[in-house]
Specification:
heterodimer, A: 279 residues, mainly alpha, MetI-like fold, 78% helix, globular, disordered C terminus, B: 264 residues
């Protein structure tokens, strides 16, 4: 039995090198001056002050948060009803519906985002249909709307599947008990079903917000070259500007923002009002 | 009243399905378009497929994608399974620590993992290309394999390997003949997740590759700046490969079950 223990050791060495070392490098580079490398380490916080003192970067941060929060809210608003309807369908239909929601997520995200590029063009399908109703060409591609649409399209399945799995696990007898005791449909939903599905909602929010705030190819493809989110700034710093220190500092700022928002959403989960329903 | 509600939810679901599948159908239809237009269908033709198959960089990226995905899947499945078995016999502290570190690439935004690897590889002086790409893919695939193998090991009787060895099996036989067959479903689903993660990856690949080595995602990203209907053909091919893979994975167990029933 003890000889099996050793089987884990190579991987322990691997993660030290391949996971921990790169993470440490980000933290180190964030605190050294540009042009230096690890061997000529000179501590500085100038990378952070540069970010927070420049209006351009603050605007990018605001826009990233705005887009990510709006994407998350829209995913919740259309994802919850979808999950709810699936959980109420006949068991046989349920498997098929879940499969149909899951299937697109298996297809390359870039390919699916690229598809919207053609659909949303000024002379694309959407504008052609709008034209039939007598509405003139609406500028869709390379706007906020296109970027948010692309994000909702890519990330809403995560929301649906999370909420669905918590709705499916729910004991239906609670609802029967509640309606026996005189609760109407509205009360049943808001007092029982919704609080009990909150864990799914929380992990759905996490799974949407996280990729939305850090995405860089959706804004690039659907927002156009001028449209910059925080992910694009990081990309530029590393692949064109060559300022690793500043890029590392920005990723660290982004990671901290994500950690704070995860902490807040977790807090919501342990809210007394939610705990009451989950008991 | 109830009928009305049902119709309402049916319409809503139909709209959701249109939303999900319109882009996919759009890509497939326009890959068969005879003109360059991405907005008007001017007649059926296979010219974009011909163009794709004669385009060297496109074919190369397809080959790279498949080779990397297959290698990364095989290596990460083997390493992930071996490590999971080892950890199941190790001290809880080690197990917890490894699980926590494994969570880093899963929970971190991909771009953070990507830039970490980029800096790490250049600090080592490694040339960006096939090897760095493969190493990166193995790195982010293993945690997913372990995530699907570990629960299967937890539900396994802890004395199983000992029992086999008491009955005369060597440790290696105890592993391959007793433990591995028991956790096979976890290994298979782990391998499947690893394959699709590697096959679809863009962000990490984009940062760690170089020297002309690119996968399908990178190619779509760099080519999409200009109108190029060959991308539609390539995308359709990707959709086709994934669909076939999913059908095989889902249908084979059903056929197996039927065969087993017959032999019984």
């Amino acid at each position: 039995m003890n000889q099996f223990k050793r089987m884990a050791y190579p991987y322990v060495a691997w993660i030290a090198v391949m996971i921990l070392a790169p993470m440490l490098m980000i933290v180190m580079y964030a605190f050294i001056e540009k042009g230096n490398d690890v061997t000529t380490f000179r501590f500085t916080i100038s990378n952070f002050t540069k970010f927070f003192s420049d209006k351009v970067y603050i605007d990018v941060l605001y826009r990233s948060l705005y887009v990510a929060i709006l994407t998350t809210i829209i995913c919740l608003l259309i994802g919850y009803p979808t999950a709810y309807i699936i959980s109420r369908a006949k068991p046989k239909h349920r498997t098929w519906l879940v499969l149909m929601i899951t299937f697109p997520t298996w297809i390359n995200m870039l390919v699916r985002t690229y598809a919207w590029l053609g659909i949303l063009q000024d002379n694309g399908i959407v504008n052609t249909i709008l034209g039939l109703f007598g509405i003139g060409t609406v500028k869709i591609i390379y706007t906020n709307f296109a970027v948010i649409l692309g994000m909702v399209y890519n990330f809403v399945p995560f929301m649906i599947l999370q909420i669905y799995s918590s709705l499916e696990k729910m004991d239906k007898s609670y609802i029967e008990a509640a309606s026996d005791l005189g609760a109407n449909k509205y009360q049943c939903f808001w007092r029982i079903t919704f609080p009990m599905s909150l864990p799914g909602v929380i992990s759905g929010i996490t799974l949407v917000f996280l990729p939305a705030v850090s995405s860089f190819f959706i804004p690039k493809l659907l927002g156009g070259g001028q449209y910059v989110l925080i992910g694009n700034v990081i990309e530029t710093q590393f692949l064109t500007a060559g300022n690793w220190s500043f890029g590392s500092a920005i990723s660290l700022i982004m990671a901290i923002i994500i950690m704070i928002s995860l902490y807040i959403t977790r807090k919501l989960d342990t809210d007394p009002a939610a705990a009451k329903g989950g008991a | 009243m109830k009928e009305k509600k049902k119709i309402g939810s049916k319409i809503f679901m139909a709209l959701m399905m249109i939303f999900f599948y319109a882009p996919i159908v759009y890509i497939i239809i326009f890959s068969l378009n005879s003109s360059r237009s991405l907005t008007h269908f001017d007649g059926f033709s296979l010219r974009w497929y011909e163009k794709m198959f004669s385009d060297r960089t496109m074919m190369q990226s397809i080959v790279y994608t498949i080779v990397i995905a297959v290698l990364a899947t095989i290596i990460s499945t083997i390493v992930g399974t071996i490590t999971s078995i080892g950890l199941s016999k190790s001290k809880p502290i080690l197990k917890k620590t490894v699980e926590q570190i494994n969570n880093l690439p899963i929970m971190n935004p991909e771009i953070v993992t990507a830039i970490g690897l980029l800096m790490f590889f250049s600090a080592l002086g490694a040339k960006k290309g096939f090897v760095t790409l493969l190493l990166a893919h193995i790195m982010f695939c293993i945690p997913y394999v372990m995530l699907s193998v570990m629960p299967k090991l937890r539900s396994l009787d802890a004395n199983l390997a000992d029992a086999a060895m008491d009955l005369g099996a060597t440790p290696f036989q105890a592993l391959t003949k007793v433990i591995v067959p028991q956790i096979m479903p976890g290994i298979v689903s782990g391998a499947l997740i690893a394959f699709t993660m590697s096959f679809d990856d863009f962000v990490i690949s984009y940062f760690v590759t170089g020297n002309g080595v690119s996968n399908i995602s990178i190619l779509v990203y760099t080519m999409s700046k200009r109108v190029n209907p060959s991308i539609n053909a390539l995308s359709t091919l990707v959709i086709f490969i994934i669909t076939v893979a999913l059908i095989i994975v889902n249908v084979i167990p059903i056929i197996k079950q039927k065969k087993e029933k017959r032999t019984r």
